[in-house]
Write a structure and sequence with these properties.
Length: about 90
């Protein structure tokens, strides 16, 4: 069975948004940020891996792009020198 990483990303994002909305609602309702701090930390802990994975993917695509550019620069042109060696 293959693990679907996009499903995990969707679940983490959804859980983070729901936790943030609940924490904000409870903070406004109770007027107590310190008491609801732990709910904000749950939402943050759901979003941190997402940011890490996005930056990792962006770095990977940039490395592939640079590798293609380097390969294009190092590609032999196929032209031979017209000068003969003696």
């Amino acid at each position: 069975m293959k693990f679907d990483k996009s499903l995990l990303k969707t679940v983490l994002f959804s859980l983070g948004v729901v936790a943030f909305v609940i924490a904000t609602y409870q903070t406004v309702l109770q007027n107590d940020l310190v008491g609801n701090y732990w709910i904000y930390m749950i939402s943050l802990s759901c979003w941190l891996p997402l940011q890490y994975w996005r930056r990792q993917e962006a770095r990977r695509t940039k490395e592939i792009e640079v590798a293609k550019q380097v390969a294009a620069l190092n590609k032999p042109t196929g032209k031979k020198n017209s000068k003969k060696k003696r």
